[in-house]
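Box 3.1 — From sequence to structure: Dephospho-CoA kinase
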Amino acid sequence: MTPWILGLTGGIGSGKSAAAACFDALGIHTVDADHAARWVVEPGRPALQAIVDRFGNEVLQEDGQLNRAALRTRIFSDAEERRWLESLLHPLIGAEIRQHLRQATSPYAILVSPLLIESGQYRMTQRVLVIDTPEEEQIRRTMQRDQVAEDQVKAILQVQAAREKRLQHAHDVLVNDRDLHWLQQQVERLHQQYLRFKGGQP
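Predicted structure (token representation):
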């Protein structure tokens, strides 16, 4: 039987990676959209060559890997270049995600994506779980984890889908404002529910 797909998302510092790790520990196949975004631009892949043809060798590191910081600088202030890059990468990332999801043998599989809603990747899923955290807690965790300034975290929050928009798409919401042990218990509870679902529906 083909596993149904759960989309797992949440804002920066919400704990979506920790929640995904809990599902993974329960034997559920997880695919991370961020990893897929890195795979499609590895050396030797056509997308990397297309990026170099467009922006030149300055977007490469000495070892031939994509220099993400240099590319970000090039597209950050140029909306047209950013759209070109998105139109190149989004279909490839989608194909990569689908390929990895097809390898799942668990009763359901999970697509973990910070931009699940904004990128339209939620259309690949039958159900959406949002890890939700009060904004002040997101800021505190991210500053602590990444050693970055508060205004930088707030800038990232601005780019990600507004919390309300994420919650509109949610079938399930897990408010992650306690410790890891509590999060594990909540994931276990949802997991037991999901095992009984057919195609993502009770």
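Summary of the box: The longest strand covers residues 4-9.
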